[in-house]
Design brief:
Helix content: 55-70%
Shape: globular
Number of helices: 7
Number of domains: 1
Strand content: under 5%
């Protein structure tokens, strides 16, 4: 899969195919191994919830607006660590209530989303998953800005190959 087909892959693919395309791009890039090691788990955590939402036709942006398909722009919106934390709490509350909450989507059909991968990822960066009001270390936010920039370069095809 080429990067030029990434919008199609995001809209129709599964997590494994998307991660495979991103991984292959990173392997061919001149990015430092540190960034490669940080990027794939982050993307996996995001996709672990966005792909199931897309499959249920319940995909939304950080403001709660409905979206038909996952696009590079929407994926990048969720790459913000604070937005991703909010998404985790929104889905946890939705799982508890058996319906999608805290969005502008009114569809009552909702299947609980498995939050294990996302939860483990967020916990590894000291994000409190019990109290949404608690903040997390700014260094973790800053690290994720770097990861998000790399993801942006990958999605825009602006990554240097070796």
């Amino acid at each position: 899969m080429t990067l030029h087909s990434m919008p199609t892959l995001l809209a129709t693919g599964n997590s494994a195919a998307i991660l495979g395309a991103i991984s292959a791009t990173l392997e061919r890039s001149d990015e430092a191994p540190f960034w490669r090691q940080k990027t794939l788990p982050f993307v996996e955590a995001i996709l672990s919830v966005l792909i199931p939402l897309q499959e249920q036709h319940l995909l939304f942006d950080p403001e709660g607006n409905a979206h038909e398909v996952l696009t590079p722009a929407l994926l990048l919106r969720w790459c913000d660590l604070m937005s991703l934390k909010t998404l985790a709490f929104t889905l946890a509350k939705s799982n508890d209530q058996g319906k999608l909450v805290r969005t502008k989507i009114t569809n009552e059909t909702y299947q609980p989303i498995d939050l294990e991968i996302l939860g483990k990822y967020l916990s590894s960066y000291t994000i409190n998953l019990v109290d949404e009001t608690l903040d997390f270390p700014i260094r973790n936010y800053n690290l994720h800005i770097g990861i998000s920039d790399l993801i942006r370069k990958i999605l825009n095809g602006n990554i240097t190959n070796v």
